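Request:
You are asked to prepare a plain-text protein record giving the amino acid sequence and the backbone structure tokens, at your earliest convenience.
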Amino acid sequence: MTTPSAPIGRRYAAVHADSLANPQAFWREQARAIDWFRFPETTFDPRAGVYGRWFPDGLCNTCHNAVDRHVIAGRGAQAAFIYDSPVTGQKRRITYAELLEEVMATARMILDQGIRKGDRVIIYMPMVPEAIVAMLACARIGAIHSVVFGGFAAKELATRIDDCRPKLVLAASCGIEGQKIVPYKPLLDEAIALAAHKAARAVVLQRPQLAADLTPGRDADWAEALAAARRKIASGETVPPAKLKATDPLYILYTSGTTGKPKGVVRDNGGHMVALHWSMANHYGVRAGEVFWAASDIGWVVGHSYIVYAPLLAGLTSIIYEGKPVGTPDASAYWRVIAEHGVATLFTAPTAFRAIKKEDPDARLMAGHDLSKFRALFLAGERADPPTVEWAEKILDRPVIDHWWQTETGWCIAGNPIGVEQLTVRHGSLSAPMPGYDIRCLDEGGHPVEPGRMGSIAIRLPLPPGALPTLWRQEERFRDSYLAHFPGHYSTADAGVIDADGMITILGRTDDIINVAGHRLSTGGMEEVIAAHPAVAECAVVGIADELKGEVPCGFMVLKAGVNETADQVEQGCVKLVRDRIGPVAAFKLAIVVPRLPKTRSGKILRGTIKKIADRTPWSIPATIDDPAVLDEIAAALREKGLGI
């Protein structure tokens, strides 16, 4: 294991300082790693857009940089993707040369549906190669793709159709969740019926597990449309990469909004490529030809950035995994993929490792898997609790790096740039801001707080390349949601601490900070303590309404497999732990063992919904939930304690 420098090493500190002191020179130099049809003369225009735009006069194409240039450079025989689907038993290796051929044909197919530069295309598909090829094909012709998580509820899909107004939907007949086949086409039909905007065309990939009925006059069969496109290419109708402005949108990715209308995060072409390319070698420490695995889904930003675009921009091999960390078939799934495909670096959510730890706490299923090529584990998507990080470090004997970013930023805000130098790892904390991120910890008045004190985490404008320039057709909402609270800053809506060494700890969303009898307390801090209990696999703490104190914390714990203690013993033990380590001020007296926690499909715990159930306030099933039945289990557990509805 690499010996870390302390605590923010001089070499990386100099890199970060340079990016803030000389941002235009810094990013102009990074831009040279990208192929441009016209290299930008202007690196940053502060007068353009809401807070400025990067590389506004550059011309480029993301698909060319992700695919074509590697083939041109003679690396067409290298694998671009390895598709590994334990739910179907399929495996497939796709070289860069084969990928170029597939992307070209799919781009021709999309053009044949009447799509042109600037048109929106919704992609509603599972984790199959065709979905990723479709993303790259849209990028090739300048169409703006908007991927909606496969199997997403019809109502939620309809709201996205109405917001981005696609001319075309690319869909699959079904997805596979564990052992369950999820029909997609009925959901798509219902969404189109619900939406005010009517997509003119749909092309449907018929999976062998379930064929879909096609709507005459609107739907086309993927295989037939693609075959027709291949014939056109064979006759000379090839599809060269379009020359696009660096500021042209590459994609729209929706996040949940508090008003009921989702927020369409816009990603541009030029700045996005420059930032992601920098991140692969410098933050994740991987180089062209190596195998990188982001165990996520293309429906989320991690999938966009680190399954598709960043690995290809850097010339790596990326894993497309259609499976789960456990259950496909068991908790050895990740070890098999790493060993079989020679993965150098894995990026996943902490919840995946908590699930593995719950099922196989002694990591016995790791035995027999050759992990000799594996160098580092990166965790993001939610707070990485120290017990899970420590467990992963122990079983892997490799760096385990927590890092933090958002859908809006598109790449890491703060982490550990092991490709430059490995910084000190402090469990529960991040290491350092990435280039271009000037991170501040502010009080409610917008004033910096002293080191070590909790505050709101904000980023001084301008945001670096790769971050969102605006929301799709909602510029005023972009200003109100992100820039109005702390003028001159982007508000992350996360609470945290910056210590005297400049190391950052994210404690949770600002709405996860509870007020107990006038004391502002972090539920994330309590979760960290509870997770240290030897019987606890994972946990969540929410603040629930209390007539006397305003709010009091309530903890929910899932136990590891094979635990001998009773639920009452674990609950009492967790209460004592919080009292001992945080103090009576936490007023932590409610601890409840539950079979599992409600999560989104990306693994985030639905704390807000738990709180509403406990507070007896109206709630609805979140569109992103993995299994709605878990909410009934939470309600039942609360009723046993005389709480909730």
About this structure: Residues 1-6 have pLDDT under 50 and may be disordered.
